[in-house]
């Protein structure tokens, strides 16, 4: 029986879209390509906790014209709190919280995101969170799933993991969790969850 729900963040709870973030912080359309390429030149290394944030920013600045540095600094400072929520997801999460369903986060994201989680209203009331950057482990490595289960004493068979990437769901299944591949349709997810949880 499913008792615990584990959410990914990017493109499940909040939208993480490089082009969308670029447009928000770089108003001049003609400069967005070079801006986006510089800002996201090796984002996976941030998710994996392999790169110091300030060193990463310095390398990004080297890859763009100096007149874009102010916008880039704003993005690096504010992107965590600038991600829009997936439509309908805060309401679904509120419904699950109201039903006292334990909720957890398992997300590939940089250290700075982990440090700012408490500032996100939607995350309040979660029973736990594991972010890849501080651990230097990323999905779909089995170790990060095993770490979450051990840290919060969760039986894998009682957990449902929701993610937008098939390889991450497949890894969760291999670790004994149930999985749900999220396609952006919150109504469909709600229809799946509510009967399973007996709400």
How are the elements arranged and paired?
Elements: E1 4-7, H1 18-25, H2 32-39, H3 43-47, H4 53-62, H5 69-82, H6 89-98, E2 103-107, H7 111-116, E3 128-131, H8 132-135, H9 142-151, E4 159-163, H10 166-174, E5 178-181, H11 186-197
Parallel strand pairs: 1-2, 1-4, 2-3, 4-5
Features:
5 strands; alpha/beta; globular; 11% strand; 199 residues
Low-confidence stretches: none
Structural class: alpha/beta
Number of helices: 11
Give the topology string: H per helix, E per strand.
Answer: EHHHHHHEHEHHEHEH
Give a brief description.
The chain has 199 residues and is α/β, with parallel strands linked by helices. The chain has eleven helices and five strands; from the N terminus they run E-H-H-H-H-H-H-E-H-E-H-H-E-H-E-H.
Give your account of this protein's structure.
The protein has 199 residues and is of the alpha/beta class. The protein has helices at residues 18-25, 32-39, 43-47, 53-62, 69-82, 89-98, 111-116, 132-135, 142-151, 166-174, 186-197; strands spanning 4-7, 103-107, 128-131, 159-163, 178-181.
């Amino acid at each position: 029986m499913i008792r615990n729900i584990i959410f990914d963040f990017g493109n499940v709870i909040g939208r993480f879209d490089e082009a969308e973030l670029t447009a928000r912080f770089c108003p001049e359309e003609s400069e967005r390509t070079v801006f986006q390429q510089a800002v996201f030149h090796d984002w996976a290394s941030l998710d994996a906790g392999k790169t110091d944030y300030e060193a990463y920013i310095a390398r990004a600045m080297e890859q763009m014209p100096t007149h874009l540095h102010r916008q880039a600094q704003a993005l690096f400072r504010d992107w965590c709190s600038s991600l829009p929520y997936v439509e309908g997801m805060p309401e679904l999460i509120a419904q699950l919280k109201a039903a006292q369903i334990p909720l957890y986060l398992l997300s590939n994201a940089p250290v700075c995101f982990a440090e700012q989680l408490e500032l996100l209203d939607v995350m309040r009331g979660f029973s736990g969170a594991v972010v890849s950057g501080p651990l230097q482990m990323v999905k779909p490595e089995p170790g990060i799933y095993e770490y979450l289960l051990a840290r919060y004493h969760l039986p894998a068979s009682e957990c449902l993991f929701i993610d937008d990437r098939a390889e991450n769901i497949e890894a969760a299944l291999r670790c004994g969790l149930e999985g749900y591949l999220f396609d952006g349709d919150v109504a469909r997810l709600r229809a799946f969850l509510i009967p399973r949880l007996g709400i």
